[in-house]
Amino acid sequence: MPAAMETNQGRTMVLEAYADTILPGEKRWPGDRAVAGVSSGGGAVAAGALLVLRSVEGGMAPALDALADGIEEHARAYAAETEIELDPEVPAFVSLDYPDRIRLVQRLTDPTHPEREAWISLAMFSVIAFDAAAHSNTVEALAAGHVGLNIIGFRPPDSDGLWRFDTYSYGRQLAQPHPDTTPSGSPA
Amino acid sequence: MTSSESTDVLVIGSGFGGAITAYHLAAGGARVVVLERGPWLSGEDFEHDFKFGSSSTRVFDFVIGDGMSVLSGNCVGGGSVVYFAAMPRAPRFVFERQGSIGRRMWPTTISRDTLEPWYDRVAEALPITQTSWESVPYSGGLFGAACDHAGRTANPVPAALDQAKCTNCNWMMAGCRFDAKRSLLLNYLPAALAHGAQIRPLHEVQHLTRTDDGGYRVHYTVLDDVDYRVEVGSGTIDAKIVVLAAGAGATPVILQRSEPTLGPMPHAVGRYFSGNGERLNTAIFDEERIRDVLGLSRPDGVPYEAYQIGKGPCVATWDRLDGSLPEYERYSLEQLYFPPGFGTILAQVPDALGPTWFGAEKKELLRSWQSWLTIFTMSEDDNEGVFGPPPPSGNAMRLSQQMLARGALRYEPTENTLRGWALSDAEVRDILERDGLSRVMPWTNDVVGAYTVHPLASCRIGDDPATSALDDRHELRDHPGIFVTDGSAVPGGLTVNPAMTIAALAERAVPGIVAAARARGVDVRYGAPAPDGGTSSRDAVLPLVRGALQR
Fold first, then answer.
1. Considering A4, A59, A184, B247, which has the largest number of Cβ atoms within 10 A of its Cβ?
2. CB contact, 8 Å: B320 with chain A?
3. Predicted confidence (pLDDT) per residue in B381-430, tens digit
4. Whether the bond into B391 is cis, omega within 30 of 0
5. B136, part of any domain
6. Residue B239: which domain range?
7. How far is CA B503 from CA A138, B73, B211, B460, in A?
8. What EC number(s) has UniProt assigned to this enzyme (chain B) (predicted)?
């Protein structure tokens, strides 16, 4: 195993790169290797994907080291197959550029891949971090400018932390009802 | 010998099938205990929060299967706490369906006409009201206007909702904070408690055995209230009658696990599962086209940007609920909201150059989330779901503390089901892409399979013992004294939201359960009014049930 993978930092980079492949973001700093930097604004990593993956509630934490190692194994095999020269300074998956990360994740999550459920799970937690901030109270996440909730345009609550929309309807009939509607309002 | 508690009637599950039967049996004089595997939350317990561990994950189960994933309630009140409260009655043709068995799937005693008085009981009890266009949120209005523009009709959907209390917060999948949703927590369940029924949350039934007196012993474990993977206790209760209403994803699993002790189960236990033919499409709207083509504008001048606002599904088009069309080609289309997370991962990018459900293009799609509209197809599937061997406990292997689990359901859609989905996809596109209003893509089935929020038919009623697990009184064949009253009893897809039909069937089943309990020496009578004391629908059914009660 390359030296880069022998540390927790290496595994973290792999998981970050995977989450960033699912919903990409901009690099967090100029030399950021895990985040490919193919999208403006934060992505799943900035949204807290690692926090969601490591949460006690989510149940993924005990499997993360094995999953990171599994991604590495697949990345090395992919690189060998496609004759990509890997950078020994970083984990193999991190060494791949974004299009190759995409191709590998497509392969891992394909309906025919025997390990697909594990890779789908990683993707699901990445998405939940981005647009639901599942590691954080939603009101607090919004107040802190959570990148995913911000990007989807999730509206903030009232001052008591509850959502209410006083203005919500076009307020007029916009279609004709089905002619066979019964008096109870159901289909006949 | 282990001592066991005893009761007259043991009800497993507290959703529509459990709450309705528990109420009537308790009100009629029976001793009733309800075991519910989920927690007991109400009112201010229901949070506006996506955080793991908040009510949104405490009350919900998401079970991934092989080809089908199932969302369902996991709390006192069951599906009624987490659902969107759309309560249409099933169209007449549904009861004449043959499905894959070459004969009418429903018992001959049940039709839309014969079920109507039982629908009325539910409508009075919850109650259910019609939705006015003035209370339809922007998303429903947009769908209605697009239907009208495309020459279709569209109806506001009847709902178990108190419009005056509703804030259109769209948090109703986490439970209604404002008691606007008329869940079972506000009617049948408090009425059952008032008549002495006991409800025990976090009690997960594992299997049944027989007692010497012809009754049943129900074996349960008690679950930790945070980490549902952890068992903190166990016990048994003996009952003369068992009402099984754990939901279509759990009822057959309990029976499968009981087979070594109870003896062979009917062939249809754990087979003929239907996902109600459900299918989702997401439309990404062009705000300017909404204004220019449909003439819609909010008071602030914005055409729409209001996916977040509302109360689930409010408007449906029923043009394809036409009994003269061939089976498998009939469906309703309903405007729907899904919260972020589950509601986004399966949405696909139109015209994607790369992957459709993740990647840079998917992130771009999320930037216009407020201009999304989700359209829900409910069609006629082919009852192709089959449950594999039961897991060691519960109905699935829990992966997370709450909500996420892996189940044994296998579902491989047949050509019939796929044809219905393809027709409905094309119809959604025809309505919503017209004149450049939006771009539409169906949710992918390649991530967690197909997806249903309305699991049905895994332990169904029918006249044919080879293809139905229950007789038309909902009693389990060859196992007298066990009744099944939840969505698993419904024979097949309904083409509309099924809660109203599940509830009506449970109401209809009660007189037969009362008769069976009386035959076993329980002093119980049928005839309770609606939970709030209303009597009109009760008085209408009393003449219908004399025969059943005299058996």
1. B247
2. no
3. 999 999 999 999 999 999 999 999 999 999 999 999 999 999 999 999 99
4. no
5. yes
6. 5-546
7. 34, 15, 30, 15
8. 1.1.3.6, 5.3.3.1
- pLDDT digits over B506-528, tens only? 999 999 999 999 999 999 999 99
Pairing assessment for the beta strands B385-387 and B482-484 based on DSSP bridges: unpaired
Distance CA B222, CA B232 (A): 6
In sequence order, what are the residues at sequence separation of 6 or more whose Cβ sits closer than 8 angstroms to the Cβ of residue B311? Answer: B84, B85, B137, B159, B161, B166, B168, B170, B172, B180
Q: Are B380 and B330 in contact (CB under 8 A)?
A: yes
Query: Which H helix or E strand runs over B411?
Result: strand B404-411
Is residue B405 helix, strand or coil?
strand
**C-alpha dihedral (B175, B171, B147, B70), degrees to nearest 10:** -60
Q: Does A29 touch chain B (CB under 8 A)?
A: no
Instruction: Give the number of other Cβ atoms within 10 Å of residue B533's Cβ.
Output: 9
Q: Is residue B551 part of a domain?
A: no
Under the phi-then-psi rule, with left for phi > 0, alpha for psi from -120 to 50, and beta for the rest, what region is B336?
A: beta
The answer, for B309 touching chain A at a CB cutoff of 8 Å, is yes
Q: Can you tell me the distance from the alpha carbon of B450 to that of B378, in angstroms, rounded to the nearest whole number? A: 13
Buried b (16+ CB within 10 A) or exposed e, B276-310: bbbbbbbbbbbeeebeebbebebeeebbbbbbbbb
pLDDT band, residue B165 (cuts 50/70/90): very high
E strand residue ranges, B125-261 = 155-156, 198-200, 203-210, 216-223, 231-244
A162 CB-contact burial (10 Å; exposed 0-12 / middle 13-18 / buried 19+):
middle
The residue assigned the tokens 């829900």 is B376
Strands (E), B54-109: 60-66, 68-73
Is residue B314 included in any domain, yes or no? yes
The single-letter DSSP state of residue B318 is -
Q: Give the residues across from B7 on adjacent strands.
A: B239
Judging contacts by C-beta atoms under 8 Å, the chain B residues touching residue A167 are: 298-300
Using the Cβ of A152 and the Cβ atoms of chain B, whether some distance falls under 8 Å is answered with yes
Return the domain boundaries, chain A. Answer: 3-152
The residue of chain B with its CA nearest to that of A171 is B134
pLDDT in tens, A22-46: 999 999 999 999 999 999 999 999 9
ipTM metric: 0.96
B241 is a domain residue: yes
C-alpha span between B117 and B114 (Å, rounded) = 7
CA distance A59 to chain B (A): 4
For residue A159, the distance in angstroms to the closest alpha carbon of chain B comes to: 13
- Phi-psi label, residue B351: left if phi above 0, alpha if psi -120 to 50, beta otherwise: left
Using the beta-carbon criterion (under 8 Å), do B448 and A120 form an inter-chain contact? Answer: yes
The enclosing domain of B391 has a CATH number of 3.50.50.60
- Is the model's pLDDT at B550 over the cut of 80? no
Determine which helix (DSSP H) or strand (DSSP E) holds B426, and give its type and residue range: helix B415-432
Taking contacts as CB-CB distances below 8 angstroms, the residues of chain A near B148 are 174-176
When divided into structural domains, chain B yields a total of: 1
**pLDDT tens digits for B347-356?**
999 999 999 9
